[in-house]
Automatic annotation (TrEMBL):
Transmembrane segments: none annotated. InterPro entries: Inositol_monophosphatase-like (IPR000760). It comes from the Bacteria. It holds the Pfam family Inositol_P. This is Inositol monophosphatase family protein. It comes from Fructobacillus papyriferae.
Length: 265
């Protein structure tokens, strides 16, 4: 287990993982440019793609993390790794390519994401916007950075002044409260990648994100968003179980309060 008792030790882990992710992002971008990517489908769903790079990136990240901690426990998107059964101690989350559909079809708006939690609480998160070469990293104790630049705390905007990001699939299906949130906002967006959606929140170009997220979709973004003062909660306001999929609102405090009122009305 890593010693994370001081800010200096946490920063050292951040620096090391950041270097590895930057290298992996360059390799991923190069292989995509060479069009040497093999694509298959999960469970026969034509919209649920997986590539050979998803699997190889995950193996590479796990191997690197095990260099730091041979006993590291993981929650990963792709199959093949023993899954952590509890959030006790330290748990690593790995999403080797987030937004695989975007990656395959458009070569834009996809990310590599990693996070480290200790006793259920976020310590560090990394989101690499691969096409744009931007790495967002840090956490509640270290501050949050875009590459080497510290990011300011969130501006606590109301819904009518906000840009919100919502799940397109659930918006089209009429799931509550996706439509209500989109209609109440100044504008809404659908991006098809949790990682890229989180980057919009981190730089302040959006102020809320609502979707049903798997643990690997949420973990890094939660660490970074909470580091800037966003609230990250289930729709009913309860705490999040990081081992389960959750319908999560990541938003300013004011928007959270407005959504609670919407659900009661």
């Amino acid at each position: 287990m890593l010693d994370l008792s001081t800010k200096k030790q946490i920063k050292a882990v951040d620096d090391r993982i950041s270097s590895w992710i930057r290298d992996l992002a360059k390799e991923t971008k190069q292989k995509r440019a060479e069009e040497s990517v093999k694509v298959s489908y999960k469970e026969g769903d034509h919209r649920n793609l997986v590539t050979d790079l998803d699997r190889s990136n995950q193996r590479a990240l796990i191997a690197r993390i095990q260099e730091l901690d041979a006993d590291a426990r993981f929650v990963c998107e792709e199959a093949g790794e023993a899954r952590a059964e509890s959030m006790d101690g330290q748990v690593w989350f790995v999403d080797p390519i987030d937004g695989t559909l975007n990656f395959v079809l458009e070569d834009r708006d996809y990310a590599i994401m990693v996070a480290l939690y200790e006793d259920g609480k976020p310590v560090l998160g990394w989101i690499c916007d691969v096409p744009d070469g931007r790495l967002f990293h840090g956490g509640p104790k270290t501050g949050v950075y875009e590459n080497d630049q510290p990011l300011p705390s969130v501006d606590d905007k109301t819904l009518e002044d906000a840009v919100v990001i919502v799940s397109g699939r659930r918006l089209v299906a009429g799931k509550k409260p996706y439509g209500q949130l989109a209609k109440g906002a100044r504008a809404f967006r659908v991006l098809g990648s949790a990682g890229i959606s989180f980057t919009r929140l981190l730089v302040g170009s959006a102020q809320a994100y609502l979707s049903k997220l798997s643990p690997w979709d949420l973990a890094a973004g939660r660490a970074l968003a909470e580091g800037l003062g966003y609230e990250v909660k289930n729709l009913d306001g309860t705490s999040i179980d990081m081992l389960l999929s959750n319908s999560v609102l990541i938003a300013t405090t004011k928007i959270h309060r407005e959504l609670v009122k919407m659900l009661k009305d």
